[in-house]
């Protein structure tokens, strides 16, 4: 009985390990760095993945890896302060570009919203990759350009003169192709993100609704 139990446990461990490998493989193959060269990741000598508990800080101002992080599982959130949401990350998303190639402090906090696993790609590994395979450097520059456009949208949102303008800019930048708010974005969270009161937020929504910019249906907000 004991031997059978050990075998079952061992088989379960192997199955779990194989599942983790396949998940890691799928995510790294789809990573922006390896666009048009999905098997390239296998040539890298990568460190072991790192696990984080819910609520744990993954990147802090002065406590972070000099590496590009790739979220293998779970959800995480970036914030300017420890509670002010800027961006959300899901499995397959990359973060930490601002920790590379200079700089004394990281630009924000990244906190685990659920238990997470992260694969780090160290700066030195990236430097070697860029030297040997220039296409990966081009892919990295394209990734940074997307980040700059995203941050420009954030700046436009925060510097708009009216709540209505800030709300519209945020909706334009963050609503998906179907016009719906991102999953999990509540009115309380949206008000905090825009740094406005809920009353001001609802008033701005009413004004945009009158202008046929958005509509509210069954508690949902849809950008037209």
Question: Characteristics of this structure?
Answer:
Jelly Rolls, 224 residues, single chain, Arc Repressor Mutant, subunit A, four-stranded antiparallel sheet, alpha+beta, globular
Helical content class = 40-55%
Main sheet characteristics: 4 strands, antiparallel
- Assign the CATH class of the largest domain: Mainly Beta
What overall form do the CA principal axes indicate?
globular
User: What is the distance, rounded to the nearest whole angstrom, between the alpha carbons of the first and last residues?
Assistant: 64 Å
**Which topology of the largest domain does CATH recognise?**
Jelly Rolls
Which regions are unreliable across 5 or more consecutive residues at pLDDT < 50? Answer: none
Number of helices: 6
Number of domains: 2
Mean pLDDT: 81
Give the full name of the CATH homologous superfamily of the largest domain: Jelly Rolls
DSSP E strands, number: 10
The secondary structure category is: alpha+beta
CATH architectural type of the largest domain: Sandwich
Would you mind describing this structure in some detail?
The protein has 224 residues and is an alpha+beta fold. The chain has helices at 2-29, 123-132, 134-159, 163-174, 187-194, 198-210, and strands at 50-52, 57-59, 67-73, 76-79, 85-89, 94-95, 109-112, 116-122, 214-217, 220-223. The strands form 3 sheets. It has a 4-stranded antiparallel sheet. The protein folds into 2 domains: 2-151, Jelly Rolls (Sandwich); 160-223, Arc Repressor Mutant, subunit A. The longest helix is centred in the first third of the chain and has 28 residues, at 2-29. The protein starts with a helix and ends with a strand.
């Amino acid at each position: 009985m004991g031997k059978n139990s050990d075998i079952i446990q061992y088989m379960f461990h192997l199955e779990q390990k194989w599942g983790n490998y396949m998940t890691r493989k799928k995510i790294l193959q789809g990573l922006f760095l390896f666009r048009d060269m999905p098997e390239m990741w296998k040539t890298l000598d990568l460190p072991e993945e790192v696990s984080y508990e819910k609520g744990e800080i993954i990147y802090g101002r002065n406590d972070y890896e000099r590496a590009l992080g790739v979220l293998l599982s779970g959800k995480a959130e970036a914030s300017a302060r420890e509670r002010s949401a800027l961006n959300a990350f899901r499995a397959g998303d990359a973060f930490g570009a601002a920790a590379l190639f200079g700089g004394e402090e990281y630009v924000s906090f990244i906190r685990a919203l659920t238990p997470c696993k992260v694969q780090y790609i160290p700066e030195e590994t990236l430097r070697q990759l860029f030297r040997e395979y220039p296409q990966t450097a081009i892919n990295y520059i394209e990734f940074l350009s997307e980040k700059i456009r995203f941050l420009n949208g954030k700046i436009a949102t925060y510097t708009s003169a009216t709540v209505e303008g800030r709300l519209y800019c945020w909706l334009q930048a963050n609503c998906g192709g179907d016009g719906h708010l991102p999953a999990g974005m509540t009115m309380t969270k949206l008000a905090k993100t825009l740094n406005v009161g809920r009353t001001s937020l609802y008033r701005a929504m009413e004004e945009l609704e009158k202008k046929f910019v958005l509509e509210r249906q069954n508690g949902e907000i849809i950008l037209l």
